[in-house]
Fold this sequence. Notes:
- The chain is of the alpha+beta class and 472 residues long.
- It has 17 helices and 15 strands.
- The strands form five sheets. Strands 4-3-5-14-6 form a five-stranded mixed β-sheet, with helices on both faces.
- Helix 2 runs antiparallel to helix 13, helix 9 crosses helix 16 and helix 16 packs antiparallel against helix 17.
Amino acid sequence: MNGTSATRAWTGSRRVRRVRRVRRVRGTLVPWVVCAALLLAACDGGGSDAKGASASPKDTTCDGKIHGTAHITVWYHAGPSGEFTTLQNQVKQFNRQQKQVRVELVTLPEDRAYTALVLSAAASGDLPDLLDFDGPNLYSYAWSGKLRPIDSCVPASVRADLLPTIRQQGTYAGRLWGIGTFDSGMGLYVRKSVMKKAGIRIPTGPKDAWTATELTGILRKLRTQGYKAPLDLRLVYSQPGQEWNTYGFAPAVWSAGGDLVEPKNFSTANGYVNGPGSVKALTDMQNWAKAGLIDMVKDDKAFVSGRSAISWCGHWTYPEFNKAFPGDVAIVPLPDFGQGTVTGMGSFQWGVPAGNADGDAVWRFLSFLLRPAQVHRMTVANGAIPATESGIKLSPQYAPGGPEHLFIEQLRDGVARPRPQTPAYPAITDAFSRAFAKIIFNRAPVKATLDQAAKKIDDDLAAHDDYPPNTP
Length: 472
């Protein structure tokens, strides 16, 4: 699924080993290549340039030098998959192409959730030199000192090539802490032939989105066409506490004028997650469930099997859906609940954990992963959206007129919105996700359930003194 499926345990090509590793001794300082053109030739793209990588007095993550032959360890979230295999091959290619930085992709236990492994390793000082993690967890990791800022590592030319959503996702307290090589997109998948037969218009872009009221009428019309439960919400992902509930359905709350927490200072959830807009959006969705318009079967086959004609989902399903119905699948914006369509964004990204790793060596590898060909290589493997403009150019399906162009349009034009950029995010998403599950599956009273979520979030804020600034 999307980059937020952080509950997958994963493995790799080597035997499981202890995460705690003794860092190899670095040798003599080796001068860093400053010129961007020489850098591209020497290390396959990466490093610093004059405009974008001057270190602040409190940030020495990158100083422009690599110390001897640097050995770095890397953790990655994906289990056996095309995504993980691609990263393995990227590591091999990087290690073949140059000798100054040696990368080891560490195998991790399969019996523990990835985020739990990260938190456990952080507590014991066992984090790797380069860590991949779910995007919105960055704010908690940065606040608690688990990450080092990477402002001093990233050239202005690289920053300019990133999608605005990637820069936004990686920023906390005015500093850059993470970079992803891919982003995410959401929309409603529809069967064009079904819509045409039913006389239903197909939106052409974000400004033309169906309203929530219009979608309700469409779902009722599709029921008369033989679709007993015409809307697929991918509820197989919606166990209480799972990230899909927040990533997938917070956009409905935002579209209705609600929020998960006070958006400026993140000081309270009361009046926001349980405010009028939030209540309206989730009441509309609960009414769809009560009317039987949502497919409640616990599998992911509602759309491809023909049970549902509309699927509310993300970019990762397009290959599967298009294979099932070649040329008959369109992606349209999520419904407008009153204040314009909104969509989710963000996925897994890379960061440098606190520790003694040579930041320039880590950046050498990360800059390799951000090269256009490597971004394209990974996004072909996992179906995600390239994080860079140069990578997008290699993917014709995202060009104007392409079947997935909507995703790019939403990420570039401000339709996509990040999940709350606060260290309180783990508590926020857990509370909202559990509330959403109760509202949809148990038909729990919407306002009272959201009141409970607001209290849980505010209790966490109080327990942490509203997360006062605690950054380098």
